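Exercise 7.
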Amino acid sequence: PERFFASEIVREKLLQFTRAEIPFSSAVVVDKFDEPEREGGLMTLHCTIVVERESQKPIVIGRGGEMIKRIGTAAREELERFFDTKVFLDLHVRVKSEWREDERVLNDLGM
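Solution. The predicted structure, written as tokens, is:
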């Protein structure tokens, strides 16, 4: 499904740019996925990056928001190529310890 693909693209960019600083215990939840109403319209995606520890949040955000902007730009560009439309991508970071045991988060991830 498109929501799963979108979350995986964002997660891929997160891991690509943060390398070993963020372990694989991170996830991306698509909070809102609005397809364009007309051809050539704007697709809107609101995603939350979930990390397990408070110390990981500033790594994802980066100094002055630099890292999250870099992640978002790279993800948006790839999503635009895949969906063949302009994409508005809004990213947020949330700390949720032991998210892998949370049924709601797992359901949002399609697990």
